[in-house]
Amino acid sequence: xxxxxxxxxxxxxxxxxxxxxxxxxxxxxxxxxTKSLAREQGLHEMTPERFKAFVNMFKNNVRxxxxxxxxxxxxxxxx
Length: 79
Hints:
InterPro entries: NCBP2-AS2. It comes from Drosophila gunungcola (fruit fly). By secondary structure, the protein is mainly α. It contains 4 helices and no strands. The radius of gyration is 21 Å and the shape is flat. It starts with a helix and ends with a helix.
């Protein structure tokens, strides 16, 4: 593994490959979109307490959605 990580030619070929360049483009695009969304929502000025409340609310929403999907899948299995 160390040999591969230190192989400059291999690293350069991978960096020049389309999948790597596209992944980098998507990562940067996602970063800028989330940054602008955070500004729009006022999240960039968030206090630690508000951030914790936001994270808890997000976790609860994800948990509720997962439970809903589980119930839906179970009802489909029964039918």
